């Protein structure tokens, strides 16, 4: 039994060392946030952090007391130390005490939690509203009072994910077009989804809200400091759930205003350009190179870069009837409007006429699908407008 | 508990008949296929659970190997999602639940002085449909497109419109698991209600029997809800209904309400029997009666009742009204009161006892400490505003693995070591068992403790690849994972040795402080015990 005693003591020491050790490893690294919740960038996220630390301290306190009594008992009341067992098996006073005291601690915890919760859910009196729409596997942002909307996709190269290039500093946490919001203003987010459930999460704002298809959720933030804030999709949403980051840039209101006006004029010009393109024809090289770019950004996640898809999950385009039959109308239509009841999305609102023309041309000529057909923006426009 | 052991006439009659019955034990494979004996069926359940534990564990090894470092190395994301999904399903429905049912089969009749379970043929059936359920589930992994990849929680519409065709097999196998669980639960309830020995009144029943009785009621209440949820998924996917599709008037969040109305009581289905086991083991090795027997029973019942009104704490981010969020926050916090009472009672049982630290007690003590850590992180998760930060991160993964692995699984290991000598009549290999305990204890903490850190730092769960700041901890977590997986091979070794009847013969009481009807019959427990009921004063 002496041996067992020593074992138990060693176990306790080992456990303590393990906890202290892992803590030390974490604290030793430069990034303090690799160990604990971040305080974040808003008043709410600060409150949430304080609540977290309060709950954590209470839990540690409870653990120390309970385990303390247990370990003292394990040390003192051992048979090998000659302990004789007592025979008590109930004590009404003690039992009432350890029912009532935890209850009081809970009330102490519940009051500040309820206060913060009410503040977090108050989305009234917002200065501006952004509609956030998730889809497999990207985010779409639409400024409700302005003529600006765009998709935001993972910007990390496939080669980094496949370990062929070195991984960058913001590996998996970088996007092509971040959301931009002004500092010091209450920004309301309307959050929804086009397909499965996603969850829009920015830890520094303490905002995590599910994007439910067919329903709209609300959340809000008010960022104090300009900066870049990164998050991720937090609800399993299919194959590339891990590759769907959120990046938000907070700018001073004047900078934000300049940015949003610039975006409005860029997007207006793009629409005009699109109309002009209808009269023109693009060359095969131009269509194929643009098509490959668009394919890799928008299509390759499911249909795979080699066009073979994932058998039983996502259909192949290589050699498929749709991409090789003479009449391209059905092909253009499915890219534009998607296919209900499947994961195929409607890309009509994500891609320009030129991009759709290019990607359809690419799909009809790449990987041995040598139809030789060129699809021009005006062909896509004809299908889109039902001509 | 102690009162239950004042036995007037131990079951000499049954002991006299043992030889007579022993040579009726059928031999060979058909013994196991056709058996209606609660001990045989208990053994089948326990071995099946162990095989599933190793299978689900192998999937966890795939997950941890992929997460060993950033980038995609070993599996593609679609297969990774299948691994997390099937790992969860197998561990919940294939390992933990059948293991507890196996323990109930072995122990409940012996603890209440009954000759067998009340419905022996149904008992055979409820076990033998399980291998089919899991064969179907595992076979789906080899279909074109792979098995279920939508998480064990199978949220719609990912599991309906956006899932592969193997969803039909998933639904069918969950139905079979549910039928098995319901039949097992009916058997436990009927046995406990009707077959207690004379004098074995309700408040003399051992706590393992009490906790299993309450668990059985939970099972009967919620397994049909799960069956309903999977059926709605099936019809949404294949028969054009729109239960969870807003375009047809349905609601994807409704799926989560239905699922978690099953899912939260399910959590307690997997931990209440563990409470019972610990309440049997601690008094034995503290040589002191369980402190607060009555309050243990009432606490178990309160936890079971409360488990029906807290389900939406899994759904705080789905966009509920503030009032609903508050209700579910307060109700969830309330559960910590009866759970705390249990922990305090165990500690009070040890207090001024005369403790020794045999293997079952070591697992029980590890359970109390580590389950409490999981319980405390659960209390943190109940706080809605901070749950917004914790939700769907590795903090949650750490929490539920602390309560399910160092909680439920450790309690099962404690139970197996505690009653194994009674089952085989011989002491298991103590040296190996010590190795098993220490290797498991250290590796399981290396595996799950740092998950708290990466979760708080912002790593979402169910991702095959992660940002660089999580790399260091994930490496340690994976090393802990591999070590914990390997440690279970020691357990396998101990079990094989025990089943081959190696080791010193033991007395009928086995452990010095053990009390209860099961310790009154010889070791190994005869094939038929308590054919004439004992009388309990």
From TrEMBL, chain A:
Residues 286-367 form the Cytochrome c domain. It is an enzyme of class 7 (translocase). Its cofactor is Cu cation. It is a multi-pass membrane protein. Residues 1-26 form the signal peptide. Belongs to the cytochrome c oxidase subunit 2 family. This is Cytochrome c oxidase subunit 2. It comes from Marisediminitalea aggregata.
From TrEMBL, chain B:
Belongs to the heme-copper respiratory oxidase family. Its EC number is 7.1.1.9. Cytochrome c oxidase is the component of the respiratory chain that catalyzes the reduction of oxygen to water. Subunits 1-3 form the functional core of the enzyme complex. CO I is the catalytic subunit of the enzyme. Electrons originating in cytochrome c are transferred via the copper A center of subunit 2 and heme A of subunit 1 to the bimetallic center formed by heme A3 and copper B. Keywords: Cell membrane, Copper, Electron transport, Heme, Iron, Membrane, Metal-binding, Respiratory chain, Translocase, Transmembrane, Transmembrane helix, Transport. Residues 32-537 form the Cytochrome oxidase subunit I profile domain. It is a multi-pass membrane protein. PANTHER family: CYTOCHROME C OXIDASE SUBUNIT 1. One of its GO terms (biological process) is respiratory electron transport chain. This is Cytochrome c oxidase subunit 1. The chain crosses the membrane at residues 44-65, 85-108, 128-150, 170-195, 207-234, 254-278, 290-314, 326-347, 359-383, 395-420, 432-456, 476-496. Residues 1-22 are annotated as: Disordered. Pfam families: COX1. Pathway: Energy metabolism; oxidative phosphorylation. It is found in: Cell membrane; Membrane. InterPro entries: Cyt_c_oxase-like_su1_dom, Cyt_c_oxase-like_su1_sf, Cyt_C_Oxase_1, Cyt_c_Oxase_su1_BS, Cyt_c_oxase_su1_dom, Cyt_c_oxidase_su1_bac. SUPFAM superfamilies: Cytochrome c oxidase subunit I-like (SSF81442). It catalyses: 4 Fe(II)-[cytochrome c] + O2 + 8 H(+)(in) = 4 Fe(III)-[cytochrome c] + 2 H2O + 4 H(+)(out). One of its GO terms (molecular function) is cytochrome-c oxidase activity. It comes from the Bacteria. Residues 13-22 have a biased composition (Basic and acidic residues). GO terms for cellular component: plasma membrane; respiratory chain complex IV. It is an enzyme of class 7 (translocase).
